[in-house]
Amino acid sequence: MQVKIADSWKNILNDEFNKPYFKNLAEFVKNEYQKHTCYPKGKDIFAAFDYCNFEDVKVVIIGQDPYHGVGQANGLCFSVHDEIAHPPSLINIFKELEADLGIPYPDSGDLSRWAKQGVLLLNATLTVRAHNAGSHQKKGWEQFTDAVIAQISEKRKDVVFLLWGGYAKKKGAKIDKNKHHVLTSGHPSPLSANRGYWFGNKHFSQTNEFLKTKELSSIQW
């Protein structure tokens, strides 16, 4: 797998790409894409980074795995291509957005409009085999995305991290909370949301309120 990633990230992550674990990961991903149907498309594996330069990151949302259904994954966590039915977690995200900020439920589930404003939509694992959730976990992606989070924490300040669910909270363990603003809640999946751990978290309005205190432009969710 040749790493094609935006230059601003290439400079930050170059050491990571040269480590043995990443070379093994790249070989694994290359073989998987040759032998199986995998998502997202190869050109979209690093889409989260391509839409959002390192210097422009204002908000980080951490997901777990890409969607593994046909045509869903587009390289941005929780996001799907236009014309694709919204998965349950995305439906609940949009419902909370509507309740929090009064933004009407959108037709499009493509969240690239957020990414272009400085929202890094980062899955912990960047690839998956079709119809096989978690199939590319524990192959090295988690170490890579931990390094991404650590670099943002170290080299940036006043970034809002939205940690939804236990998995994201563990991924956020290395965030310097003295430099950054961390908001946590349950996961937007129906299992968590229906137990009262998601709805009403007001993360979207709280994010914008924080950005305004730092004289940064708010996100047009």
From TrEMBL:
Cell compartment(s), UniProt: Cytoplasm
Keyword Nuclease (UniProt): no
Pfam families, A to Z: UDG
Residues at the active site: 65 (proton acceptor)
CDD domains, per the entry: UDG-F1-like
GO-annotated cellular components: cytoplasm
Keyword DNA damage: yes
Catalytic activities: Hydrolyzes single-stranded DNA or mismatched double-stranded DNA and polynucleotides, releasing free uracil
Family annotation (InterPro entries): UDG_fam1 (IPR002043), Ura-DNA_Glyclase_AS (IPR018085), Uracil-DNA_glycosylase-like (IPR005122), Uracil-DNA_glycosylase-like_sf (IPR036895)
Domain Uracil-DNA glycosylase-like, residue spans: 49-211
GO BP term, example: base-excision repair, AP site formation via deaminated base removal
A GO term, aspect molecular function: uracil DNA N-glycosylase activity
Broad class of enzyme this protein falls into: hydrolase
Enzyme Commission number(s) from the entry: 3.2.2.27
Alphabetical UniProt keywords: Cytoplasm, DNA damage, DNA repair, Hydrolase
HAMAP family assigned to the protein according to its UniProt record, in alphabetical order: UDG (MF_00148)
NCBIfam families in the record: PRK05254.1-1, PRK05254.1-2, PRK05254.1-4, PRK05254.1-5, ung
Family per record: Belongs to the uracil-DNA glycosylase (UDG) superfamily. UNG family.
PANTHER family linked to this entry: URACIL-DNA GLYCOSYLASE
Role noted for this protein: Excises uracil residues from the DNA which can arise as a result of misincorporation of dUMP residues by DNA polymerase or due to deamination of cytosine.
Name of the protein in its database record: Uracil-DNA glycosylase
